[in-house]
Amino acid sequence: MNGGSKMRRKKNKGAGDSQAPAPLSKRRRSAKRYAIHLTLFFIFAVASLITLSLTEFFLITSIQVEGNDRYSNTEVIEYSGINLQDNLFRINTKQACERISENYPYFETVKTKRILPDALVIQVTMAQPTIAIETETGYVLVSSQGKILETDVQNPSEKLLRVRGLEDWEYNTGSFITEFSEETQQVQEKLEKYEMLKSFEAALGSVQLSPINYIDLSDRYNIRALYDERILLELGSEAKLEYKLNFISEMLKENIPRDFGQDFEGTIDASFDKMLRVRPRDLTQILDERALDGDSNEEEEEFVYGSDMLPLMVPVRPGDDESDDADFEDFSPQNDADAEDEDVAVFESGVKTKDDEETE
What we know:
Layout: H1 2-19, H2 22-55, E1 62-66, H3 73-80, H4 93-103, E2 107-115, E3 119-126, E4 129-135, E5 138-143, E6 148-153, E7 161-164, H5 185-205, E8 212-216, E9 223-227, E10 231-236, H6 241-260, E11 266-269, E12 275-280, E13 303-306, H7 336-341, E14 345-347, E15 350-352, H8 354-359
Parallel strand pairs: 1-3, 4-7, 7-8, 10-11
Antiparallel strand pairs: 2-3, 4-5, 5-6, 8-9, 9-10, 11-12, 12-13, 14-15
Helix pairs in contact: 5-6
């Protein structure tokens, strides 16, 4: 019997060993259920928070406008379409900014800033006109970023660069000058002219030459500008604009005032490579912006400055026969072939006339 009891005890012990994992399995199942419940609770809590944030929380109680010095802040807020008690995260800020920018052209940029828990700030930067484009009905004021600020302006500020040659465009206040509904050949030509204007402004920004009052882009191969309302600059094409303007600037610092006086009035032709043709002229009519059209028929003395910054003093005097006038040829490669057909010799820092060749 004792042996049987031992056997039973061994069996019982073995049975107990096989059932030992059961409590561990229950704990695992309980932990899984707890994790699931916790996850569901977290999801519910987040959903509830989002719902409350879009309905009860973050309601706008303050709207401010920063950077505006031209329009009424109250009107700007009204035009944005955003109202007090709107939810801070449900408002369409992109649409509001576009609406404000289109309606208030002097706003160069419009942004919004949310300040938790209940404030919205409309941040604007003011546009400043830099050019005035002449049209048949007045001037169009345009910012440095190309935004059209005003149309039909009759008396723009004298500080603005006045532009001719872009009058046949359609200008809509609040839009940008480069915005077109369709791409056509005519549109492409207009954009090229505008790029010429930007190139001129960029070149002018790197050269000490001011004030420039007008620029005429009517002929893209004969850009003309008015300096200090007394000197007409003939620049040729847009090639080497910075070089040409710098050349003129250097001449105006010393050489031209020395040779013609501080109040020199006339024309400076920089359309020829590495030389300037200076002609004293009465430019009273050019003080009117419309007088940039056409050339004067007056015969005036003319002097040439070479690229070495020295006056060559090759005058074209009144009464000289046109056949004896010094002729000039562009140094650009496309004109080399044409130069062979001309009875003219041109040098980098000088000019040789036909009479000089016959004397030799």
